[in-house]
Amino acid sequence: MTIKLQHALVAVSLAAAGCSLLPSVGPDYKQPEIDLPAFALPDAGAPTTNTTATGEFEAAAAAADGRALVTTNDVANWWLRFDDPVLAELVDSAVSNNVSYLMAQERLKASRWQLLGSYAAYFPHIAASLSAQRTEYGRQTPTMVNTNRKLHRDVFAGGFDATWEIDIFGGSRRVTEAAAATVESLDWGVVDAWVSLTSEVGARYIELRTTQKRLEVARTNLVLQCETYDILKSRLDSGIGDELAVNQSKYVVDQTRAAIPPLLAQEEQLKNALAVLTGEMPGALHASLEPVADRDWVLEPGKLAGVPLDRIRARPDVRAAERAIAAQCAYVGVAEAMWYPKLYITGALGLQSTHPQNLLDRASLYGAIGPAVSWPIFQGGNIYANVMSEEAKMSEKILAYELALEKAYGEVRDAYARYTQEYHRCQALEGAVAAAQDAVSIAKDLYKNGLRDFTAVIDAQRSLLALEEALVVSRGTITLNVIALYKSLGGGLIEGSLGPEGLETPDETEESED
Questions:
Q1: Full DSSP string of 450-464
Q2: pLDDT tens digits for 67-96?
Q3: Closest Cα to residue 133, out of 347, 352, 349?
Q4: Is 60 exceeded by the pLDDT of residue 408?
């Protein structure tokens, strides 16, 4: 290599290094500062048996509110709070085998490879070539027409061609920024899919257990109603009964019996849904999802110390939306870089000879190196339109981020309101069930003593069945609401990901009171 060529390569390398330190065109990303107002949470308070002037249940006074605070430990791995090995196994299986979740992971892998590929723009692109070519010129060709001769020429060549774009204005750097932010957005998207998946498994599981409990209530009532019908039918057959009472009892029995098949169908549907969520074929989990006797999944009521604004900003879907803004901001820079010239360093080095035996001789060596500039002078407004398009997309991403925050804030408030209010509803239903059970016993006694007709018994049994089922549904709804609350707080993330800020812990409360 000659001294001049060495100097040229050194100069090119220094120029490339200097250009890479120049600021990139386009806006530098800054996270949007969107304030969330700290409105009071819609807390129904701790349920008590006290009532207001309008007859509603009254919440316990602040000093008598013994509810424990919902902490980051409660939100992290929330399904373990139920101490249910079947639920824990379902969640583990879903995280490992759920097809939709695995697809999200593959999308993340693809974006990471695209990020790696974007770094190729920083390096020279080198291509190798090897060729052998024969060129023929006949006597009548323009080249040989006056020579009365023909000509053929063989050319043998091999070498390397290189092109290196010097990223003066940062277009390539912005592409890499966009790819990196996209990976982070998809990474948080996978975490969000994980949170949604675990919540979906928990919700379907509680719905299944609630359905099985409703079946138990219906079957228990059916047995009691059948016993009543058999007694009435026996009395009628003996000539001392009431035919109207028998028919009334019969349609109550059949009405309860008719409520069981839809519940059985719903039970099958929920078992199949859990199988699909865990990556199994429907029917594979039926043995492990049989009803569990004498088991309740209702947790003690809890409370939030305040609006967890930091937790809302840290939710995976909100973080994914924020990273999408960063990616789009970089794309604005990519679009603006098209306004500026592009500097390339091109070069070639190889061997060329008319005889193959001389191809490796030093005399066959050729080489070239030099700069090239490309600058779009007139594009009919295409570059400007593209920049405006990318800026509009960035504005849309900012609005999407703001919308994600608003929705997340609303989900926390909605879930908390449903969660705390359902305890009051459940308390009222417990009282109603106890009264309905007494009403059935009283109505039967009055009928036996001839003081009331059988309609009173029918009404009491119907009310008991409806209220017992409503109570079972309410207890299941409490659990579904607490799962929704955990999800709205970014549920399922490990505590290290949640960070120290956000939900208040009991220790933090004591320190703040001091």
A1: TSS-HHHHHHHHHHH
A2: 999 988 888 889 999 999 999 999 999 999
A3: 352
A4: yes
